[in-house]
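Standup notes, protein team

Yesterday: finished cleaning the Microbulbifer aggregans set.
Today: Polysaccharide deacetylase structure.
Blockers: none.

Input for Polysaccharide deacetylase:
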Amino acid sequence: MKTLLTLDYELFFGQKTGTPKACLIDATERLLEELNKFDARAVFFVDAAYLVRLRYFAQTKEKASEDYSAVIRQIRNLETQGHQIQLHIHPHWYDTTYDGDNWKIDTRRYRLGDWSREEVGKIITDCTGELNRHLRNKVFAFRAGGWCVQPWQHISRFMKANGITMDCTVYNGGQCLNGPHLFDFSSAPSMGIWKFESEPCRLIRDGSFTELPISSVRVSPLFFWRFALNRLFGDLSVHRTFGDGGAMKSKRSELIRKMVRASNIPVSIDGFKSSLLSENYRRALENGKTHFVAMGHPKALSEFSLGNLRSWLTDVYSRGEKLELLDSPVLTVQREKEVIA
């Protein structure tokens, strides 16, 4: 089984974004301390829209210039250490302003699908170029901000033009039908990897793009009740996240749905969700899965989640397995043919 750890490298999107030092740099260093114990490598999906805007404001704002230099330095170091850097885009950064100290977040156009075709083309080209200018190995994989990868046909031409041939956004059974998040993965194939063309959830054997989905787990409402109670009464010394910002508020209807109905969530190393990590890894092995893809965010890590990450990595490496990186486009095609056959 091919096992990967993927991280969304980004700030928070509530009224308090948090600082790059706490949410990105220091949190990532804590993560690397654990990975280095196993000589493990991870895939970092870097929010390039944030970098584009940070570089823009760095021309006139000293703090932005300092932050940009520090973040770019870490991204380059990550690649030098053998980790993989790929493309992540939260387009609302293009509507967000900076006063020299704080960001004024505007999430009214949160999804790429909220922007015109012309605007989307510019955003994707800007973001891909911004990442590639700092890397030895050019990006070829994408993860949509907030899982909002649909409609793919709105962005596919620009992805292809910028060398993006793989998506890593979908998770089986995932669904959010209330904005600003808006996605529906209920029809996704129960496969570890597949080809697609205009819709990431629809298998097309000779499609131009590859979907490598995030592994998912079905949870009962009880999980979210425990999650909520843990936030209210849990030990902050182990459960406080490393990031110092605040999340974007979810719609009340979405919260109620999770509290009363079973739902699918991505397998994650974040916070309380990391308690499900090892169990679902072993289940994937038992069920003969071809891929196990965990995700997370440096900003959302905690002492609790690092402990669960450590236990999971111990399990993985004690079996003679290891964390792997995304295959290059050529190797991906070869692997897909083997899976489909």
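Follow-up from PR in the comments: The chain has a mean pLDDT of 93.
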